[in-house]
Amino acid sequence: MKLRTLLATSALSVGAFAMAQNQSWTATDINGNTHSIADYLAQGKTVLVDISAHWCGPCWAWHNSEIMERLYHEFGPEGTDDLMIFFVDGDPASSMALLQGASGSQGDWTEGGATPYPIIGPNGQGNTLATLYGISAYPTLFMHCPGANAGVEIQRTSSWDTFFASWRNGCMAPFTNGANDATLLLNEDSQLCPGESPYAYLYNMGTAALTSATLDLKQNGTTLQTVNWTGNLARWGTAKVNFDQVDVTSPQDFSAEVSMPNNVADEHPEGFEEAYSFEPAPDADLATVSLEIRTDNYGSETTWKLYNSSNQVVQQDPPGNYANNTTYTYWWNLNPSECYRLEVIDAYGDGMCCSYGNGYFKLRSNGVIVAQGGQFGDVDKEKFVAGLAVGIEENSLEAGLNLFPNPTTGAVKVEFNLASASNVRIAVLNVLGEQVLSTNKAMGAGLQQTDLSLNELPNGSYFVHILADGLTAVRKVTLNR
User: Fold this and answer.
1) pTM score, two decimals?
2) Per-residue DSSP letters for 168-185?
């Protein structure tokens, strides 16, 4: 049985946390570096200790959410330098082989810098700390604040910002570095729709409201644009600052810098620079697009929404919960050349793959995958530009498609031409874009005719989609008994 609990709340006081025993420890990480928690606290840092186990499923899910990695990036030594994080494998059998994914482990905990902060575990180092903290379950997280004699237990949430907010006020001093303190945060969306520009996320770390700042966008050391931003950001507030004079026509890397918060020198300039990567949103071949969703063992956690260029929801998951380990397919006829954003959301914050099943999503147009994913945290955002409507002279399948009788009382003849022998997929969608019927048939070249039964469907309008030879054709049919 998988035990998964989340705390999705706003900032809490220290008194709301469970207290642990007094801890003052020194331990050696997997790279041979020795760490004293007292030294980090003496430097005025908050210290987070993640006590997990290499075999623990919920620990692996938390690890893959990348929430701790994001916090370390923003506020660790390479960011504002207010935070230190340790990952502790508390199992007595911890070893480098198990941490790197040997049999008995959930996977490689060290792969690709996924844990950029120190890892403590082998040679009994991790088990000693787990015993010191007196934990009763994995994972258990502790926060240490400068001047405190003991760590306090903190709960997980489904996103990095809610997790930060949930314990930040319980240890605010390390993050209080002056009245005028601006920094930059990572971007969560690197894809740009036509007409969109590179941008930076301005974050107010100061105690005073942030009303102005200077931001520079650079590439290979050359300043491309300077923006003198004005606004009104309360403490911990964020603003998106666009560099509208810079065009992105291919994948490109940039850096951005912030200075002069409220027209004065930054009192804590650490974190003033951030690296950004941007690329144009991919183009779909056609305006007809399909979404295939495969749920994991916890299908009820999965939802999705499709937004148009005006940020309006134009499609979303149907009411109720998805079943576990089940595939769902939706078809949409979108506005040609419009840029859309698909958001696939996991309520627990561990994506759809691969700790508890092998879920995924695939967005296709004309049989070609436009976007796909499954291994993410709380949300995966994918943009794409709908293609142009295909003309009859360009699409032999569209030109030859005929449905009769239409309207029908249930039995429909489907007639079309194939340029070559092909596997043909016929899908029937309702007006909400939900697939209600589908079939696959191998057919030869030339004029084809097949029977389609709508007898099990209620009266109404439906869309019959034919996919073959890499082409798509759609016809509307009315069922009226």
Assistant:
1) 0.76
2) HGGG-GGG---SS-EEEE
